[in-house]
Specification:
Helix content: 40-55%
Radius of gyration: 19 Å
Number of strands: 10
Largest sheet: 6 strands, mixed
Distance between the termini: 41 Å
Bound molecules: acetoacetyl-coenzyme A
Number of helices: 12
Strand order of the largest sheet: 1-2-3-5-7-10
Strand content: 15-25%
């Protein structure tokens, strides 16, 4: 039996997903994205999981879409197959938080995959870039849209047009990366962050994620209204009563996710 392209593990209330094509630096194929989408959807539906971590290995998070596979494709091949839609699109509809734990290369589709996650914790050896221009194409997994939202137009244009890589210092300074940690502590730190998220009240975590994402999808007025309504809605939960009561009583809240 062939080995799975994405390893799936459970650590407490955290779902851990590890890209598993080390020989090709975790190059992303349709099959990888499909496996990832299936595993993420399963964690999303699992009451025992509160957050996810997506990672690769020390050398590469993912070095992009599989160039070997794409090399001979024609316009009609990619158009008819609707390459990069379906399962890829499903990833952005995952409702529980997903942290990308990035070491080594996150290039092309790899950088785009990290950006689909809710935030990036990166190792000191991480390198980010959109080098598709060197192949005669452009980013196709959302890089031209998510990168400028993350780092601003100037740096996004620089990276997309020159195809250069940026190191983790530049990536953190630019706002692409939330935290930088030593390589050997990457997974531990990412899982610890996911565990903290998973210990909160799930309805508030999911509405917080939805509300932040709304900032990129809508006008300020619409997004503020969306945030207000989510804030109001959380007063309908037991966890809001518990969270506020626990603060007043100077104890830790015991959330029941309802
Ligand atoms: N697709 C397929 N195979 C890949 C790959 C990719 N994106 N990236 C690396 N590999 C393979 C290499 O071909 C090599 O295989 P062999 O051992 O069989 O030769 C193996 O992984 C190891 O890679 P290197 O020998 O090249 O390793 P290196 O340390 O010398 O260089 C690297 C590392 C700079 C990341 C280099 O591999 C590289 O430039 N990779 C391609 C990066 C890239 O262009 N990504 C964009 C892809 S297009 C895309 O993603 C489109 C999109 O947005 C949808």
């Amino acid at each position: 039996m062939s080995e799975s392209l994405v390893k799936v593990e459970v650590r407490g209330r955290v779902g851990l997903l590890t890209l598993n094509r080390p020989k090709v630096l975790n190059a992303l194929s349709n099959a990888v994205i499909t496996e990832l989408a299936v595993a993420m959807r399963a964690f999303d539906a699992d009451e025992n999981i509160g957050a996810m971590v997506l990672t690769g290995n020390e050398k590469a998070f993912a070095a992009g879409a599989d160039i070997g596979a794409m090399a001979q494709w024609s316009y009609l091949d990619v158009y008819k197959a609707d390459y990069i839609s379906g399962d890829w699109d499903a990833l952005r509809h995952i409702r529980k938080p997903v942290i990308a734990a990035v070491a080594g290369y996150a290039l092309g589709g790899g950088c785009e995959l990290a950006m689909v996650c809710d935030f990036i914790i990166a190792a000191e050896n991480a390198k980010f870039g959109q080098p598709e221009i060197n192949l005669g194409v452009i980013p196709g997994y959302g890089g031209t849209q998510r990168l400028p939202r993350a780092v601003g137009k100037a740096k996004a244009m620089d990276l997309v047009l020159t195809g250069r890589m940026m190191d983790v210092v530049e990536a953190e300074r630019a706002g692409l990366v939330a935290r930088v940690v030593p390589v050997e502590r990457l997974l531990e730190e990412a899982i610890a962050a996911a565990e903290i998220i998973a210990s909160k009240s799930m309805p508030s975590v999911m509405m917080a994620k939805e509300s932040v994402n709304r900032a990129f999808e809508s006008s300020l007025a619409e997004s503020l209204l969306f945030e207000h309504r989510n804030f109001h809605a959380l007063f309908g939960t037991d966890d809001q009563k518990e969270g506020m009561r626990a603060f007043v009583e100077k104890r830790k809240p015991d959330f029941k996710n309802r």
